[in-house]
Specification:
Belongs to the NrdR family. With 187 residues, this protein is an alpha+beta fold. It has 6 helices and 6 strands. It has a 3-stranded antiparallel beta sheet with strand order 1-2-3, with no helix packed on it. The chain has a 3-stranded mixed beta sheet with strand order 5-4-6. α1 packs across α4, α2 packs across α3 and α4 packs across α5. The protein is elongated, with a radius of gyration of 21 Å. It starts with 28 loop residues before the first strand and ends in an 8-residue tail after the last helix. The N terminus is likely disordered. Bound molecules: zinc ion.
Length: 187
């Protein structure tokens, strides 16, 4: 993951030990300025050490954890979304900008749910909608893996839904999507 692409929590969370002064290691500091960055998803704080008086900055990010089926938890990564979707987009007219935008939309929709932990299959679910808008073929490829298509009929049904969606009508509710217990790309 490229540095700076996804904010890493370096700050203070409730229950964590406080951030120490980087100069004298003192544990206590005073906040002199706070501002939201990254569209409110992180808070940058300017602090003044109560021991040596020097100033430093901390950045606090809301931690968004993805719980994999194995139970292992990892931090949500836009990069990982991009990698998973890129595979499905091979040979399709989808450039990197479009992939980055898609990953951003996925992150926003996940964060808007306001929970700190989400099951990994919900990341896949959040990808399906924007990907369908982006490229139908890539969507079918991704959905076939994500939803573990096992027959031609699975494709036929998905294509029928896709046609309906492209015609502007809302896609019929798909109970399989809500279950989403299958393995998928990016895991
Ligand atoms: Zn200090």
């Amino acid at each position: 993951m490229a540095a700076g692409e996804y904010p890493v929590a370096v700050g203070v969370r409730e229950g964590d030990r406080p951030m120490r002064c980087p100069f004298c290691r003192h544990a206590d500091s005073r906040v002199v300025d706070s501002r939201e960055v990254d569209e409110g998803q992180a808070i940058r704080r300017r602090r003044s050490c109560s021991e040596c008086g020097r100033r430093f900055t901390t950045s606090e990010t809301m931690v968004l954890a993805v719980v994999k089926r194995s139970g292992v938890t990892e931090q949500f990564s836009r990069d990982k979304v991009v990698r998973g979707v890129r595979r499905a987009c091979q040979g399709r007219p989808v450039d990197d900008d479009a992939l980055q935008q898609l990953a951003q939309r996925v992150e926003e929709s996940i964060r808007s749910a306001g929970v700190a932990e989400i099951p990994s299959h919900e990341v896949g679910l959040a990808i399906l909608g924007p990907l369908r808008e982006l490229d139908g073929v890539a969507y079918l490829r991704f959905a076939s893996v994500y939803r573990s298509f096992t027959s031609v009929e699975d494709f036929e049904k998905e294509i029928a839904d896709l046609r309906t969606a492209m015609a502007g009508a809302p896609a019929p509710d798909d109970p399989a999507a809500a279950e989403g217990e299958e393995s998928k790309p990016g895991e």
